[in-house]
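Please annotate the following for my students:
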Amino acid sequence: MNVFRLGLKPRLYSGFGVLVLLGLALAGFAAWELSGIRSDVQKSSGINDNTIRALEVANRIEIFRRANLRFIVDADEQAPKEAAAAESEAIELLKAAAVATPTEERRTIYNNLRSGVESMGSQRGTLVTLGKQMQADRAKLFTGGDALTAAAEKLVAAHGNISDPKVAALLGPIEAGILLVRVANWRFLATRDAKGPATFKTSAEHAATAIAALEKSELPDNVHALIGPVKTALAAYVSSFDALAAGMLKSDELYWKAMVPQTVDMLAKVGKVEASLKQLSDTTNTETLATVDTTMLAQEIIAGLALVFGVRSPSSSDAASSSRLPA
């Protein structure tokens, strides 16, 4: 029996055409959805890259914060090098993040953070310059303190040549005054109390007053000759202390009132970027999964329609043919 004589040929072609159209529709829809998924995956990859950069930037900020603290507290000579390296790495990471981000708002945040890190580097340079000068002033202060103590000891040791007990009694305030001057210096270096220079100045003035009182007394020439070195040593000691105290207060002001708040602010901004990127990443992943689910459902529906049409087309043709066959 020739099926084409029974009129099945057009129906077979029709069923095959329906299958082809459904297949093309399935392929087109799948391609469109896969394109969307690919775009979401690329977006998610970019977000993850910037999240990693943000974490690395926060790490570099922590590194140069600790390094700067070591320098200001312990005068660690290696600390500025570590801070400079961390700042340079943070700047490069922020440049890459600004280029990779698709939004102008986040690009502005990255650029502002980079400006902050660069500003921190400039401030650190000033801090290092102050630190080097402070080291020189500290060395002068210690040397001057030893010279002052030695000169005062010579003067006090000469009290045996002074017959007048009133004059000899003037040596006690000089010795006590010089001791108080050195104690005031050590206390300030240890605590960095802003009132320290005033306390030191008061002690130095008391010592200078005691020296002046002794100088006005009648003294043997050999004892009188010992007063000049004490006055000179005291003046040099006061000058060295003033220079060191000014540098220490200035460096503390720069570090604690400028650099520390700026560092905290940068860490807070990086933290906000991290939180924003995490939220964006979660949203993108949710959208991607939803797209995948939609694609799978659509494919199942189209595949089911194709199966239905594929099964019904031949059976319908057979039914139509049977109705035209002779009984």
Summary: Helices lie at 8-74, 79-100, 104-157, 165-169, 171-191, 196-215, 221-224, 227-324. The CA atoms of residues 15 and 310 lie 6 Å apart. The chain has two domains: 8-128+263-322, 136-252. Confidence is low (pLDDT under 50) at residues 1-8, 313-327.
